[in-house]
Every structure is written in structure tokens, then in C-alpha cells.
Amino acid sequence: MKNLQLIADKAPEMALQIISxxxxxxxxxxxxxxxxxxxxxxxxxxxxxxxDGSREFIEKITYDLYSGREKVPLxxxxxxxxxxxxxxxxxxxxxxxxxxEVVFLQKYEGGEVKFGTIGEGTExxxxxxxxxxGIEYDEDIIEYNQTWRVSEIGIAFGESYNKLLNHIHLYPxxxxxxxxxxGGLAAQKAAQKAGTAQLIAYDTDLPTxxxxxxxxxxxxxxxLINSADIYILEDAIASSMLADTxxxxxxxxxxxxxxIAYDGDEVEVGGITYEYTGVTSGDAYLIYPKKYFKEYIxxxxxxxxDDGDLSRLIIxxxxxxxxxxxxxxxxxxxxxxxxxxx
Length: 342
What we know:
This protein is an alpha+beta fold. The chain has a domain at about 80-105 and about 110-130 and about 165-340. Helices cover about 35% and strands about 25% of the residues. The chain is built from 10 helices and 16 strands. Strands 1, 2, 7, 14 and 15 form a 5-stranded mixed sheet that branches. Strands 8-16-13-9-10 form a 5-stranded mixed sheet. Helix 7 (about 185-195) crosses helix 8. The longest helix has 28 residues, at about 145-175. The model is unreliable at about 1-10 (pLDDT under 50).
């Protein structure tokens, strides 16, 4: 099965359509091998070694890969805007807009329209990275016609890719530097706007702390948290009332529906565990989404197959790769602040 593109022709479209039908209850099973294969009339070896069989094998692997991706939701998506273009250069400059000043004035006959201005912004370099991984099918799969292993490998491949995507988009927020500017909430708000991402210290109780966070960062709406803190945050928001029982800004603005719980993840390969850092319990990140959180995609997951390695009894190898970049800016009024929950 030389140089066959698994993400090619109609295979991805077919896989996504089947998954959608299953989710909507219009289909009870996914894509499976032909009845001849199930009945033993055709073997995996024949599927890999013939043109018609290779087509069916490609469809099966593609479906399994996308099934694996469905098992690991891309939880970063509400925070990011997506730009995709195959012509993106390896390195490019992204520019934050400065303050926009616009005023509407009455237009009199013969007068001119007053044009607004855009202040100086900050330029940042965005560099694309190539992310790659490979999987192998050994000779035992052929000799014993192990269809279950074919599916297992494809599903694991898809799961691993989505775990990577969550990590490369959420870790830049978690690992960012946040500082507490002295001088009170007004000073912290000014510092956030000026370019120093703020750490909101715990103050008296959690509802008070959340109110402080909204004073410093009034545009924040999404919260990136550890799953262990979901319930205390829900209770704090539900009980956040003013003295006259009027709901406070906390209850009005923050909603559990905009919690994104990320405890990290891990992938084990060859006895080595690769860990993706999550949000530490006791910390939370209040975020204004999309404006300064962008994912750039030159191309998404692309998988190719080629001959294996006879010396190790590998019959075929699959290599997946994607070329992506991430742009994150937390230190501004459209970025993010970090909150200590205790």
C-alpha cells in the first residue's frame, strides 16, 4: 500500500458523515469491513495488497481515526478563533490592534465625516511547528486476521492527536506569567490594560474574589479551571448576592456553562508517559475569548501510508503530521487574568 493518502478523496468526509449519523441516532454502527472479510473469504493481507482492498482499508482506518478524535473533545475551541490557509508562511507577524477611537457626530450638509483612529499595537512573531507521529501494523495482524487491532490502532492515533491540540492551545494560558500590581483593584485594572497580566489574590471569600476579578477584568466571560473546583465555583456564583438580594455581577456574568475544565492529559508510548500539564486545583483563568487567542492551520492532520520494515516484520507504516501555529496574548484588556480560589 504505497503512498496512499488516508486523508484524501472522500474518506474524511465519509467518516465524519457516518459519525454524525450515529450521534443523531440515524445509524447504529459505524464503518466495518466487508462481509467477505468477516466471513473469512478475504483477509487483511488481500485488502492491503490489492487496489480495491486498499481503498476499503483506507476508509476503515480513516473512520477509526476520526472515531478516536470524537472520543477526546477539543475543549479549547470556544476560546480560539481559527484561521486556515495552505499558503501561510513558516513565520509571520501578527499585530494586536491598539486602542480604537471613534466618535459619531451629526453630519451637516457640506460637512465631512470624522474618521476614527487606531492606536499603535504590539507585534508578535507567529512561527509554525510541524507535529508528527507514526504507527505501525505488524505481520501478526495479517497472519491472525486481527481486525480488532486495526481499529484499536486507528482510534488511539486519533485520540492522541486531539490530546495534543488541547495541550498546545491551553498550556500557553496556564504557563503564562501573572503578577499582582500593588495599589488596589484600580491599579490592577490599569496594569492589565497596559500590558501586565494580573493575578487576582484570594480576598475574604470566593464571591468577593470573583467580584474583584471582574472589576480588574470586566470583559472576562470564560473560566479555565480544574475539574475539582467546579462545585465550589458553582456554589460561589449561585450565592453571590448583594445585601438587598440583588444578583451581583458575578452571578450575572459568570455561568457554569462557560467553565472549561482541563486537568491535563497523558499519552503512554513504549513504556514512556508523556504528560500534558493541566490547571492546578485552586487556580482559575478568567478569559476574554477569540480576539487575542488564535489558531493558525496551514494543514490539519494529514496521514500517509507506505511499506513497512521487513527486518521487524512490520507490514505497513502510517505517519501523521500537521502544521499549526498558536497566537496567545493574555496581557491586555482582551486577554486573561489568573484567580486564586483559596
